[in-house]
Amino acid sequence: MRIGHLSKRSGLSRDTIRFYEKEGLIASRPSTSKQNTYRDYPEDLLDRLAMIGEAREAGLPLSDLRSLLDAMEGRGPTDFDVHAFLETRIKQVEASIRR
Fold it and tell me: What is the DSSP track for 47-76?
């Protein structure tokens, strides 16, 4: 799907989608059409964008989010413990809420 359609379906602006792509959180691919230079975004990005949005709303910095996504996709360090990472972040958010 093209960025306009992804924007409509995800509720995110085109600029936000482009920013996430520039930051390496999502990826598109060149269009299969030889007649344009549009980028195609896969359908499964809707779930990923929703997860990114929820993580950002919870205060997760982009660097932490990138590490988390890399680990979930097997691109990060092999000793990265996703559950421990998330548990630590949850405790930090809870402490922030209490303050």
Answer: HHHHHHHHHHHTT--HHHHHHHHHHHTT-S
Rounded CA gap, 99 and 83, in Å?
24
Where b means 16+ CB within 10 Å and e means fewer, 58-93 reads: eebeeeebbbbbebeeeeeeeeeeeeeeeeebeeee
Identify the burial level of 20 via C-beta atoms within 10 angstroms of its C-beta, where 0-12 means exposed, 13-18 middle and 19 or more buried.
buried
Transcribe 6-46 into DSSP letters: HHHHHT--HHHHHHHHHTTSS--EE-S-TT---EE--TTHH
User: Considering the entire predicted model, what is its pTM?
Assistant: 0.78
- 25-43 residue pLDDT tens: 999 998 887 788 889 999 9
